[in-house]
Amino acid sequence: MSSFLRLVKSVLILPLLLVFVASASAQTATVRGFVTDSSDGQPIPGVNVVLSDVSGGLSGAATDTDGFYAVSRIVPGIYKLKASFVGFKDHEIDLTLAASEIQTINFKMVVEETELGEVLVESTRETAGAANITAGLQTIRPADISLVPAPDISADLVNYLTSLPGIVSQGDRGGQLFIRGGEPTQNMVLLDGIQIFQPFHIVGFFSAFPADIINSADVYAGGFGARFGGRLSSVMDITARTGNKQRMVGAATIAPFVSTVRLEGPLLPGKVSFLASYRQSVIEQGASKLVDQELPFEFGDIFAKIHAKLGSSAQLSITGIQTDDNGRLGLDPLVDSEVETVPDEIQWENLAVGSRLIFLPASLPVFAELLISYSSLNNKFGPPGDPTQTTNATLFSFASNLTHYVGTTDFNWGIFLSSSKLDSDLGGIFQNVDLKVEYITEVGAYLEPVFNPMEGLSVQPGVRLQSFPSKNESFIEPRLRVVWNTGIHRLSMAAGTYHQELTGLNDRRNAGDIFTAWTAAPNGKVPEAKHIIAGYRVQPTNWITFAAEGFYKDLTNLVVPEWTAFPRFNTNIQAADGTASGFDIRLELGSSDKFQTTISWGRSEVKYGSKARALQILTGEAEVEYSPPHDRKDQINIMTSLKLKGFNFNVRWQFGTGLPFNESLGFDRWVLLDSLVNVTEIPGEERVLYGRPYTGRLPTYHRLDISLDREFRIGPTTFLTIQTGILNAYDRRNLFFLDLFTLRRVDQLPFIPTLGIKLEYK
Amino acid sequence: MSTTDRPFLTIIFALSFILLWSGCENSIDPIADEGENAFAVFGYLDMRVPTQKVRVELLRPTILSDPISLEGVQVSTIDRNNGTFQIWRDSSVVLDDGSAGVVYVAQFRPELGHTYSLLISRNDKLVAEAIAELPIKPAVTVAAAVGDSVNVTQHLTFLELTDQPVALFVLYEVIPPDDSGVDLVRVGYGNPRMATVGGWEFDIDLSTDRFAILNALGLNVGTKDVKLKKVSMEMTLFSKEWSQPEKGENLEHVLGFFASVGVFEHSWTLNSETVTKMGFVDAQQGN
Fold first, then answer.
1. CA of B42 vs chain A CAs: smallest distance (Å)
2. Per DSSP, which regions of A221-257 are E strands?
């Protein structure tokens, strides 16, 4: 503990040191600023901002998700500063920098338009590309998402995520994502810095993040830096668009699964904007009738954001989101399908609101960010109106992140504080968990400088100090990230140690039950993960990108349902250790302008090992190793997108080897012989007998989805887009859930033709 | 096409074939191999009764499946200590919830310390076996009684007791004052009180038992001329399977629960002074 305190002091002393260093480099100048799209005021990430002196010497930076760039340690003099990005005209200005000067130069980029026959085509904003992965980090832009065929004309982030190798979903229902061996509760999802507990909708094509509201998303499949913590597996850091600052625009869509309304515009032109989106599922009226099958799912979400420019050096945004889902995933095993009963349903609701202030202190080469947020989740399972299992989690969070630009080094550091209240009633499902109302406080700091010792090389060591005063637990988590760009090649690696005090408990023995209870790590053992990732990417030409990446995750103190031969209606929890390892290979051909194909293959193996007594008794072994139910060995995705004469044609084929499931030995009537029971009279209780855990494999999963859309101009700024498509084109019966009690199967969605219409005012 | 393309194309075709082949497979067999044709047995051998019963069933594939016929199934036991072989008789019973069950019955009383194999055969082929070891009689030491007339107790120790004692009775053979014959009075002590190194310890409260005896005989507490003819104890023991019913180490290719219940007696002689302190007349043989 004393060493922890010493480290905390070190981190807190750091700002003073950095101010000193900044003062020491006062003979040089700094240029920084924000780059936005002139047409709507949106920040543009990934813009190259290059500073060139009269002798041709170059230095520069790329903009981040806020469109922010900074070039520091510039020798005073005369320069040209140029911003360039695909789809926009280059923007160049002359600049004179004096000693100690910090200039803020904001760029407003103008969209490049080209004439193609009679059709006016706005140059497409660049996709980040599925093969553009760097040590587990995949950046996703709305243009990427739009390449995936979807049942809705408005594309959705999750539909793209499930096309990536290493991300396993249960299928088209359930809303659960397993990222490189991690469980859904081990993923951290952030929207504008606000944590969202369970943002993926019950129908697997949809999340709380339609492409229309996304500016960019950074998905770390592991190896994330010191800025992020409190989760074992992954981080999805999503930045929402800021809304159009120039004029009112909007869109309305209707499709078999969901209807959407989006509206955005200036509140104070050029300064304050809003963006609002409302989506509501129409499955009962749409998709259900198309397939003539009951699809008992309902979901919706409301998103709103206000963004304000507070002068040229500060911005404030307030973001709010609310989601709700309910439906039935599995089957009640004891209810005959012929009998009319009220089935159990799962229901969850997220509510989150937060504010984000970013500012550039006038006299320091610093980028500062302040985040304050509130997030809650309400999750229920059981008969409608009378749930048997409930969980309520609320989280207040404050964080401050700063970047000091000192020469070629970016010093990132920050502090954070959060407080959670967790209140669950598990209805006895976990017999050895006595849940009560719990309060968890988390406080800590991190330091993560980015060194650029030579051209193309970036070394990012980090340390995160994380303390839970309410639990008397503290952790020091080292992190490392190295990226080396040399010519057409990019080599990268990332590693780190991670802890998760706020744990999600669920009973994965039943795929139809996705109820998750949030609690402090039970038994006083905090789950821990150690990641290491190594990757290689090569881009020999503009239209070929190849990437390969390997990963290994060592997992300890995991919380899993205990394995017993007894009925599944309740269980204990038990500790398990595990590993997740694998690799993925991605090949991307073409560009998003006309033709693009991505082929990816992910191979992985997830193993859990448990020394739980029940498993020892069952198997006679000291430690039992098994594959958890999300261990998909191989996953292949092929996506093709073709643009021709104004039509967009998208195809996706997915293939995944079968997921593990519990094989049953059969059913008997268990007579509890705890006394001299008369077995000729007592009938006993129905019991399913399991063998070893997850020895069975479901059949392989594969599906072909196709979509075709075209946008028609029906007014000066009014557009009508019509999309048609087919989900599961060859009507593959992909199994979602097999009820061992009755052997009734629930299949994923069958062949579904879709038709969507979007009316957009741009 | 160049010859160097051929291996590449071969690999592509092979991969495509594997994908198509595995991709077409859509059926699922959710029953583990070891569960097919597996039996469940519930019951125990009981020394206290002359008729032994176990319930047997075949595992059903689903909860909604009807019970599977046990036609061709034979249940038997063999006493491994003396080789006695016995075939059990099947009997259909109606259980408390109205459902049907199949119970196998045999007329014999198992013996303490013997090991029995319950054999389940189908179509004359042995398919499952469950083993029950009857508890072993422990060594008993009886200490001298202590205390005055209102509180006479006697300490018993059971050594080398490996099985679980579940009930203990002290048996008194007494003759009422009218000499109408010998009456047997059983005084229950429930579970023995404490485990000790290598066994169990237990205290008999002789003074309190006197009131229980007089009450059983319908006599008032002041009655003087009751004769004590014999004192002994009877202990019921559970075999080790009862302590961990889920373990099933004694079951081969069969699920469920199979165990045994053993009973043993031990008698001793109280000295005359103790009998007098209890308020009885000493009529024990040898005194």
1. 7
2. 234-240, 249-254
**Chain A touched by B30 (CB under 8 Å):** yes
Pick the CATH number of A25-114 from 2.60.40.1120, 3.10.450.710, 3.20.20.370, 2.40.50.140: 2.60.40.1120
Cβ of B46 under 8 Å from any chain A Cβ?
Answer: yes
Task: Pick the closest to residue A688 from A607, A571, A575, A517 (CA basis).
Answer: A571
The three-point CA angle B189-B193-B194 to 5° equals 155
B122 plus B165 within the same structural domain? no
> Under a CB-based contact definition with an 8 Å cutoff, are residues A135 and A67 in contact?
no
A-B contacts at Cβ under 8 angstroms: 134
Residues B218-240 pLDDT 10s: 998 888 889 999 999 999 999 98
Domain extent at residue B90: 33-133
Residue A320 has pLDDT above 70, yes or no: yes
The helix/strand/coil state of B276 is helix
Is CATH 2.40.170.20 the classification given to domain A133-761? yes
Nearest CB among B23, B97, B103 relative to A679 is that of B103
Work out the angle at residue A494's Cα, subtended by the Cα atoms of residues A492 and A499, and round it to the nearest 5 degrees: 165
Q: CB A680 to CB B25 under 8 A?
A: no
For residues B218 and B145, state if they share a domain.
Answer: yes
B261 contacts A741? CB cut-off 8 A: no
Give the lowest-confidence range in A3-17, A188-202, A673-687, B217-231.
Answer: A3-17
Residues A580-595, buried b or exposed e (16+ Cβ, 10 A)? bbbbbbbbbbbbbeee
- Whether A730 has its CB under 8 Å from any CB of chain B: the answer is no
Of B31, B55, B62, the CB nearest to A663: B31
Q: Please check the confidence at residue A668 and state whether its pLDDT lies above 80.
A: yes
CA distance B199 to A448: 64
Length of chain A: 762
pLDDT at A522 over 50: yes
Contact predicate A408/A421, CB 8 Å: no
Instruction: Tabulate helix, strand, coil % of chain A (nearest 5).
Output: 5, 55, 35
3-state secondary structure A665-716: EEEEEECCCCCCCCCCCCCCEEEEEECCCCCEECCCEEEEEEEEEEEEECCC
Q: Are strands A29-37 and A102-104 parallel, antiparallel or unpaired?
A: parallel
Cβ-contact B103, B24 below 8 angstroms: no
Nearest residue to B26 (alpha-carbon basis) of A654, A628, A736 = A736
Lowest mean pLDDT, pick from A93-107, A146-160, A739-753, B168-182: A739-753
Amino acid identity, position A424: S
DSSP state letters, A3-18: HHHHHHHHHHHHHHHH
Please list every residue in chain B whose beta carbon sits closer than 8 Å to the beta carbon of residue A674: 245
* CB spacing of A680 vs B103 below 8 angstroms: yes
Reported as type and span, the H/E element at residue A641 is strand A634-644
CB B177 within 8 A of CB B223: yes
Give the Å distances, CA to CA, from B191 to B113, B170, B235. 21, 12, 9
Torsions phi, psi of A345, nearest 5? -135, 155
Chain B segment 57-96 residues within 8 A of A by beta carbon are: 57-65, 93, 95-96
State the amino acid at position A550 in one-letter form: G
